[in-house]
Backbone:
């Protein structure tokens, strides 16, 4: 999903493998030419992706997805002035679009990273994903600290920009960002998804 902690997840994995001394290639899928990438040159190839890509599903050894309350993903896009939201010109349509991304990748997911759980207890969630990937070293606390202090001026490495962080103090929510009529419409259009993923309705 977009706006669901995918950049944080990308950097958690990148930092974990780098800490192990692995030779790693990491990037955003839209910036790389897969045909020219020799994966045999690396111990780990880590690619962040949102858009549905059958070729990436086929190539991946492990697919890790992210989940966040759809309403909050839309609110984040609104605060960010996100270009795809502007193109769709509708918060309701953007919620459907993000839900479809989630559905596509969830069908191939090996592990799901839940944004709200990470915000509540980052060390525990980082520890869980490192255990799943059999990455040993007890470095979850250090990785959480590094992720929280990532620079926003080194996109080539972190894929993080100043625009990513729309609520640095975590005081905002979809309720404070979106209009009530839009929240109600998003819930109507995504009722089953919200319930199935454990999110309460307004």
Residues:
């Amino acid at each position: 999903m977009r706006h669901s902690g995918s950049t944080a997840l990308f950097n958690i994995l990148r930092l974990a493998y780098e800490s192990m001394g692995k030779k790693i290639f990491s990037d955003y899928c839209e910036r790389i030419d897969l045909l020219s990438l020799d994966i045999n040159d690396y111990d780990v190839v880590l690619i962040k992706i949102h858009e549905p890509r059958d070729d990436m599903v086929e190539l991946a050894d492990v697919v890790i997805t992210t989940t966040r309350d759809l309403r909050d993903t839309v609110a984040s896009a609104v605060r960010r002035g996100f270009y795809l939201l502007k193109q769709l010109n509708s918060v309701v349509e953007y919620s459907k679009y993000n839900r479809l991304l989630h559905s596509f990748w969830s069908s191939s997911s090996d592990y799901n990273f839940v944004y709200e759980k990470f915000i509540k207890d980052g060390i525990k969630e980082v520890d869980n994903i490192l255990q799943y990937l059999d990455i040993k070293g007890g470095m979850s606390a250090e990785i959480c600290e590094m992720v929280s202090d990532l620079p926003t001026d080194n996109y080539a490495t972190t894929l993080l920009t100043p625009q990513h962080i729309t609520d640095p103090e975590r005081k905002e929510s979809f309720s404070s960002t979106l209009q009530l009529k839009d929240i109600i419409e998003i819930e109507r259009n995504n009722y089953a998804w919200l319930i199935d993923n454990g999110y309460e309705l307004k």
Q: What stands out?
A: Residues 6-196 form a domain with the Rossmann fold fold (CATH 3.40.50.300). The chain has twelve helices and four strands.
